[in-house]
Amino acid sequence: MVIRLGLKAQNSEVIIHIEQGSVRTLAQMIPPQYHAHAIVLLTDSTVATLYGDMIVEQCKDFARWKGVITIPAGEASKSRAIRDAIEDELFARECGRDTLLLALGGGVVGDLAGFVAATFCRGIPFVSIPTTLMAMTDSAIGGKTGINHASGKNLLGAFYHPHTIVIDPQLLDSLPDAEFIGGLAEVVKYGCIGDEQLFALLEESSSDVLARTPEIIQELIIRSVSQKVQVVSHDEKESGLRAILNFGHTTAHALEQLSHYKLAHGLAVYQGMVLATHLSCRKGLITHEQCKRILRVIGMYNIVDKDALQTRSALHALRECSADEIWRACANDKKNSGGNHKFVLLETIGRAREPLPISKEEFFQAYHDAVSMP
Ligand SMILES: NC(=O)c1ccc[n+]([C@@H]2O[C@H](COP(=O)([O-])OP(=O)(O)OC[C@H]3O[C@@H](n4cnc5c(N)ncnc54)[C@H](O)[C@@H]3O)[C@@H](O)[C@H]2O)c1
Asked: Structure pTM?
């Protein structure tokens, strides 16, 4: 399956291949115009061990194959120091403007590789090969690249798209459960904000989803990617519609900040979606029946460990912080304007609306609804 993301501003498109086993034929998906480029693989230490050899085996016959650059796995690599080290290494390998970067990894590798590609010799092409569910369904698509700064996450960056994205759901076989469940939070989000059929699939097939049944996982990825492509193609630079992708994320970012980034992003998003769902109901946008269905689906996946299905509801971060702390941490959200806190809410299952101003009282009531849940 091929999905195309049209970029009006650049009069170009990003080609997204989604197929089981596609990475085994990666060399064939490298666009012919780049075959004579210097080609470098950027990956992290964990992914290099798992899939590095497979990629090298396919790419080593390109005329100017320049080998692998491996960075330490983990968020700490989204730094200026690592970006500098990658650039130094590219120059040391005699890479110039005619270089193609292959980015193999999760969101960390993707964000970093995209940022290096955006600025190295004023911009070189890159091909993205996401290896986590989060990266396959979210971070690899949309052109947001960047690194962190001591002042905050993703504060240094650029909008810069890969030429091609190769998504091979088979790579998820090795993904730890916690990363898989974290990635599912974004899939649940897409179901809530834009795809009722995806929501129904998540609702009806939770055991197949959690067992990672290949056909179901591929379907979830295709539907999520389609959703993101649709939103991004209408709002390439995040100036309007793209805000709906923030459903659950306002509170999630506050919870992550309050936990000093110890709380996993996906688990924060589930809890943020619980709060935003209660807000949507209190505002009279969704019915109590719809509210119950959404909370049930979030609860099916908001689990720390899939073997603990019966015992965890994992609203711990919400419960550990007060409504006031979270409200104050939401004050810096980029959607806020005119002194108002704004949240993305649902109009129905499968449709979100643009951010709405929410009063402190409404937020506190929704918080109370959320933490009173069994
Ligand atoms: N650009 C965007 O639009 C966007 C959107 C959301 C998140 N992000 C960024 O994405 C990053 C998080 O990405 P992530 O959740 O993919 O984390 P990650 O890249 O750190 O990967 C998580 C862990 O899984 C390992 N891993 C990756 N693929 C694997 C596989 N197939 N098998 C086994 N292990 C594997 C990695 O080595 C790492 O240890 C954050 O920095 C976040 O800011 C960016």
From this structure: 0.96
